[in-house]
Amino acid sequence: MTNPQYPDLHIPNVQMDVQLRVCYRQEWQDGFGARGWKLANALHDPEIIASTPATGERIPTSVLVHDILDHALCGLPASGHRAEAVALMQLAARTRADPRPDFAQMVDEDLLRGRVNGESARSFLPDDLLDALPDAAGVADERLLAMLVRTLDQSTLRTRLIAHFFTLGQAGAAQAMAHYRARGLDTERRGALGLALQQVFEQADRWVVEQHLDMAEGSVRFTADQLWFKLEHPKSRVARGTY
Q: Source organism's superkingdom (predicted)?
């Protein structure tokens, strides 16, 4: 069985000026209740949780920076296991962080519990795992994954699924980079851009907290060597950076 192709990415004409809308809420009414920021084009995606500038131990930039640089600017959907595989490989390329812990987390918390995000389990899984279930035609996703857990040694299955994430991430890399370059951005400077974006994001977030704002809206804008995090409503504020 052939897995579906990655989303049919339209590669735009080269732009030297890119702008993405962002929204802030002190508390999002989305079932999570988190404080933080979301890209405007992901507001209705139930998988997206608001991000603050907090970084992880391994990665020097926050989730919003990941959503911008490794998803949006690479033409990838905001969520979905296949898109996340590609985006995490892009994150690894700019930060040198090992994506394996994140792949393992998605395997443990989602796949081994019967959940594939963004597509059916049958379209997501590699052919060799589907071949291990010859009598699974028409089986629902959760049951299909449960059958795999029962059929195969769990350690072996876990290792194979992690490897599958690497395969998917590598397979989508060329399209992701083509889309990024079409924005007029230098792929060799993604690391510097990520760190600069993290700094202006921290400035903007600190300001909305100091102002006790319940909500804010604005945009993140990039040119070839500069960026702006501009808040437009309910108060105006601009954080600038270079990279």
A: Bacteria
Domain of residue 222, residue span? 18-117+166-242
Q: Which residues contact 12 (CB under 8 A, 6 or more apart)?
A: 179, 182, 183
Say how far apart CA 30 and CA 127 lie, in whole Å. Answer: 36
CA atoms of 58 and 69, how far apart (whole Å): 17
pLDDT in tens, 166-221: 999 999 999 999 999 999 899 999 999 999 999 999 999 999 999 999 999 999 99
* Strand blocks (E) in the chain: 18-25, 36-39, 215-222, 226-233, 237-242
Read off the pLDDT of each residue in 219-233 and give the average, rounded to a whole number.
Answer: 93
**Is 71 part of a structural domain of the chain?**
yes
pTM of the entire predicted model: 0.90
Residue 157 lies in a domain: no
DSSP string for residues in 15-43: -S-EEEEEEEESS-TTTT---EEEEGGGT
